[in-house]
Request: fold
Amino acid sequence: MAQVGDAVQAVGAEVGDIVDTLHRVSEAAAQITQIALQTRLVAFNASVEAKRAGEAGRGFGVVADAVKELAAQVESSSKQIMGTVTQLDQRIAALARDVRREPPAQAGGRTEEGGAVHRALAEVVQGVQRIHAASAHSRSVCDGLGGQTGAIERAMRHTSGALAGALERTETFLGISEQLLESVAECGIETEDTPYVRTAQQAAAQIGKLLEDALRTGAIDESDLFDTQYRALPGTAPEQHTTRCVELADRLFPQVQEKALTLSDKVVFCIAVDRNGYVACHNRQYNHRQRPGDVAWNTANCRNRRIFADRTGLASARNERPFLLQTYRRDMGGGNFIVMKEAAAPIRVGTRHWGGLRLAYRF
Reply:
């Protein structure tokens, strides 16, 4: 901005030179006007003398009249030039005042900087200084925020570590609790979980028998029954998959799964899953076609053709003990969760472990 001010000052000096030149042009125009006026007087006198000379001075009179007319035109043009130069002089003088850097002057009890351009430049400089001051303050605040953010990050890491430790201890406690429940059930003591464990074992045995019969009759071969090449179904959210045994599952599993639901109104679902937690066929309540773009509804109502590889799902799918009891939180979609228990029993096809029967129920 200081450089711009200097450049403007240089322009002001040039404008001063232009003003001087215009003054000289004005003076020259005034001289031309004076000469034209004198020429008109001389031509007028010559015209008078030509008329006195009579016929001999007629030609000379014509020339004198022409000179007089030409002098009048010159005078008119000179006056126009002087008027134009006066206007230019006034405008350039105003421009010179605007671009000239003058010492501060007192006006109305306050100091004013001479020259509108320089006043504008001074205001810009002041604005830049205010921006600089604000930036410095912002930098100071950001430095303080950086320190506070670092403290928050350290606190969050500490909290995260504490939560991880608490989660680990909770998982351990949950595992011990589930083992205690299993031990009680294995001892033959009747508990509130016993009917659900027994139903899960019976349903697992029935599913295993149906799959064995399908192999024996040739309804499916062993490679298709144990197919784990999950092929994603396009456009599904949550993502669904298909395998070579889904048609058989849709035909055989509902007769067992739907019957187990009648055990109690506390039963939420009963499903057969393979060793990777894949649900080929869910209960009819959750076996709907997906609605495009409605993820929350799909999550709650379209649970077939899904892979549930969470802790509970895999544990139930790969359990080979007579039964497994677990407690967990089930995602119902839309941010809704319910706490449930689950009794699982292994599904065997001949000597091979196919998966597990999962029977979930509310407390």
Summary: The CA atoms of residues 325 and 343 lie 5 Å apart.
